[in-house]
Write a structure and sequence with these properties.
Elements: E1 2-7, H1 13-21, E2 39-45, E3 49-55, H2 62-75, E4 78-84, H3 91-102, E5 109-114, H4 116-119, H5 125-130, E6 139-142, H6 151-164, E7 188-194, H7 200-208, E8 226-232, E9 235-241, H8 253-269, E10 272-278, H9 285-296, E11 301-306, H10 313-326, E12 334-337, H11 346-360, H12 366-379, E13 392-399, E14 404-409, H13 417-431, E15 439-444, H14 448-468
Helix pairs in contact: 2-3, 12-13
Length: about 475
């Protein structure tokens, strides 16, 4: 079932959206135009089942905003038409009402009068909504989304309206869940990340085969991450288009909130990252900083050189060579030249995405790991300064997605960068982990023979002290 929230700019749709899904999903500020794309979130509601909520943007240019509002009205089974009681009915509301009537969806609409606490006292709730009955909607509810007032009445109305109008598909009502949140959708999760104007929204729209996110040449068009689903060769995918990320020092207000939300989404969902680079600019210093930040989260990542349709074959060849040299520190990362606009090279990405998911979730048996690494280090021991040898006692994999290995050594402080890099290369050479970062942690454990000699020495020392006494 699809429920769409529509209304004029800054009437409180995003606040209500967050209340209904019980998550801080849409960014909320007093600035008109904070939400600039359709945001959707799937939840479970008792007695209804699986529901997808859609939050419409509030744009300063109503001609652009109206296109997306109409799209939500067209595709929604139930419409929550939100009106700001402190402002009342404006020309924008009249346009929306006309379209709802034209599409014969008045009976599938709940009129939500928000911010009733501003003009009216607690006991005047009925008075607040009486003046809106002339609009011809049977279901009207007065709320304060900010304070959470009368939200239970709205939820009850959503349930009754859904059941009464038979909007629930057969068998769907059997699904029920606690609260308003589904933790993880089925399918492979992908996150499109990059600097502003790298072509992220274009790629999302190409994958979805429809306009889900607005595309402009203006950096910062997308302010919130947008999710969507698509199927390719009978495989399901969930994709997230994130806000363009600039330097941290340049992030303020809405952009800072959007950046923090993107990081939280990456930590929680742990998707495969499709990192977009503007091929006309190449991998910049800011791109490198972002790649390092994502690498610190140990997420599988593909680097896509986008907009190759604007390059000559010679320029593309040089860009590939330069990109490989720049990403030398993370050889496991795969580089794909693509054009999100013309779809060139996109199929090649999905040939490896499924394999990367398997690689990230792969677990190596401890005996096999120790056998292979042990033999390799015996045949070709690593070099250390005199009396600074770091010896591997034992190695085991303790986690997947990101594959994490704990290495027990005789001296933890001697496990330098070169030793760690060689160990990582050995694991990759024998076990793969294509496109996936590996986490290696060192713990100190003394050789049993050394420990035994130390124990004997301590016992002898204690015995000598007793004899002296």
């Amino acid at each position: 079932m699809k429920i769409g929230l529509v209304g004029s700019t800054n009437v409180g749709k995003s606040t209500l959206f967050n209340r209904l899904i019980r998550q801080f999903r849409a960014i909320v500020t007093d600035i008109p135009g904070t939400t600039r794309d359709i945001i959707q979130h799937e939840t479970l509601i008792d007695d209804i089942g699986r529901v997808t909520f859609f939050d419409s943007p509030g744009l300063l240019d109503f001609t652009e905003e109206e296109v997306l509002i109409k799209k939500i009205i067209d595709e929604s089974d139930l419409i929550l038409f939100v009106i700001d009681d402190s402002v009342g009915i404006t020309a924008k509301e009249q346009h929306i009402i006309s379209y709802i009537i034209a599409k014969k969806k008045r009976n599938n609409t709940i009129l939500v009068i928000n911010k009733i606490d501003i003009k009216h006292k607690e006991k005047d709730d009925d008075l607040a909504i009486n003046e809106y009955y002339h609009l011809g909607f049977d279901y009207i509810v007065g709320i304060s989304a900010k304070k959470g007032k009368n939200l239970e009445n709205l939820k009850d109305m959503i349930t009754k309206k859904s059941l009464k109008t038979e909007l629930i598909k057969e068998g769907e009502a059997e699904l029920s869940g606690e609260g308003f949140d589904i933790k993880q959708e089925a399918g492979t999760h992908l996150a499109i990340i990059g600097k502003p104007n790298a072509g992220k929204s274009t790629l999302l729209n190409t994958l979805m085969k429809k306009t889900v996110s607005k595309v402009e040449n203006t950096p910062g068009t997308t302010r919130d991450y947008i999710s969507g689903r698509f199927t390719l060769e009978r495989k399901k995918y969930v994709v997230y288009d994130t806000a363009g990320i600039r330097k941290k020092s340049d992030l303020h207000g809405i952009e800072k909130i959007a950046f923090d939300k993107t990081l939280e989404m990456l930590k929680y969902k742990r998707p495969i990252v499709v990192f977009l680079v503007d091929a006309t600019e190449g991998i910049s210093h800011r791109d490198m900083t972002l790649i390092q930040e994502i690498n610190n989260l140990a997420l599988p990542m593909i680097v896509c050189l986008n907009k190759i349709d604007l390059l000559t074959p010679k320029e593309l060849k040089l860009l590939n060579l330069k990109s490989k040299a720049i990403l030398e520190f993370a050889k496991y990362m795969l580089i794909f030249p693509i054009s999100a606009k013309t779809q060139k090279g996109i199929k090649e990405i999905f040939k490896v995405v499924g394999q990367m998911k398997k690689e990230a979730e792969k677990r190596i048996d401890t005996w096999e790991l120790n056998d292979i690494i042990g033999k390799e280090y015996i045949n070709r021991p690593p070099r250390f300064p005199k009396n600074k040898i770091c010896k591997i006692m034992y190695i085991t994999q303790i986690d997947i997605n990101a594959p994490t290995f704990v290495v027990f050594v005789n001296h933890k402080n001697r496990a330098n960068f070169a030793f760690k890099r060689r160990l990582e290369n050995s694991i990759r050479n024998h076990f793969g982990f294509i496109g996936t970062p590996i986490v290696i942690r060192f713990k100190e454990r003394q050789d049993s023979r050394i420990a035994k000699r130390e124990q004997e020495r301590q016992e002898m020392k204690a015995a000598n002290e007793e004899n002296k006494e």
